[in-house]
Design goal:
By secondary structure, this protein is mainly α. 78% of the residues lie in helices and 0% in strands. The longest helix has 35 residues. The termini are far apart.
């Protein structure tokens, strides 16, 4: 009887959560953003690989200034950038009406779309192992969203919260910059994917904060600093993403971003912003299990992605087999 009562309470909470107007608008906007992200990633990847080929310089260890300039003349990269801007607009719209820990993980939908697009364009159909990895990524993130949708709440962000977020972002950017300078020649796609995911997790959080403060008419010095940090972090993350496209297939890049980005954003939402302060212990256990499953999926995809196995031997990880993975 006790278990039935708990099940009934959770069911009532779930129904009530999805009667929230903010969620009903925010979730479709986030899903639309995921679609734009998928196509944008494919076009940007095409532009980056074309510039790499035309310049005669390998970009897997970091795009040069000349290569970045050449990207502006590639129609495919420009089209991809426009689509990513539309994805950002949809994401900002979703963040303005729905909790961060619900909206941000929905980008995982783009992984499925990007995988199908890349398989069609590159001819590398997903293997059994890579398909399992993709299911783990998407499944883990969606379980996370389901739990978050039940218990997520929003509260005012204090100045102390903002200072903590900005300080953490500053430390992480310094660490990533130092690693890039000292270990650049040893870094592969996974470094750039993970670094971009972490930075974009902070970007999403800062975007949410700036939107809420503007809605409340609180545009003062701290909001301005948040806006500057948001733009700077967006630039750093964009560089990491473009370099990742030069050293890995687009669906691997999207897999890392759509898992690492929301996990970082959600950790900030949970630990700093208190968006799940009312959640019971079992919900946090569910968060941990779902997040671990999604991260495991990214690692497995990096090991067993058919295009990575066939075309690249530079990732410093143990690889899955070729024929045996089919």
């Amino acid at each position: 009887m006790w278990s039935l009562a708990i099940g009934g309470d959770v069911g009532d909470q779930l129904v009530g959560a999805f009667q929230n107007p903010g969620l009903l608008l925010g979730i479709p906007l986030a899903l639309a953003g995921a679609v734009f992200m998928s196509f944008g990633a494919q076009y940007q990847h095409r532009g980056v690989t074309k510039v790499e080929r035309l310049s005669g310089q390998e970009a897997a260890k970091g795009l040069t200034g000349g290569q970045l300039y050449r990207l502006l003349s590639r129609p495919s990269w420009v089209v991809g950038t426009v689509m990513l801007i539309l994805a950002i607009v949809c994401q900002l719209g979703a963040l303005s009406v729905a909790p961060l820990i619900v909206v941000q993980p929905l980008g995982a939908v783009s992984l499925v779309i990007t995988t199908l697009l890349n398989a069609r364009i590159s001819g590398h159909a997903p293997t059994r192992r890579s398909a399992i990895a993709i299911v783990a990524c998407v499944g883990g993130i969606f379980v996370f969203v389901l739990i978050a949708a039940i218990f997520a709440t929003e509260r005012d962000v204090t100045q102390g919260d903002l200072i903590i977020i900005l300080a953490l972002l500053g430390v992480l950017i310094v660490v990533f910059a130092a690693m890039w300078i000292w270990l650049r020649k040893k870094m592969g796609a996974l470094f750039y994917i993970m670094a971009a995911g972490v930075v974009y997790g902070f970007v999403a959080t800062l975007a949410k904060v700036v939107i809420k403060r503007l809605q409340a008419g609180q545009f003062e010095w701290l909001t301005l600093i948040c806006l500057i940090a948001l733009l700077a972090a967006t630039g750093v993350g964009a560089y990491f993403v473009q370099t990742a496209y030069a050293s890995g297939p687009p669906d691997l890049v999207i897999a890392g971003l759509t898992v690492v980005d929301p996990i970082v954003a959600v950790l900030i939402g949970l630990l700093v912003l208190g968006e799940a302060a009312s959640a019971p212990i079992w919900a946090f256990v569910g968060f941990i299990i779902a997040g671990a499953l999604a991260i495991w999926g990214v690692v497995q995809l990096a090991r067993h992605h058919p295009q990575v196995v066939n075309d690249s031997r530079e990732l410093p990880i143990e690889r899955g087999g070729g024929a045996s993975s089919t």
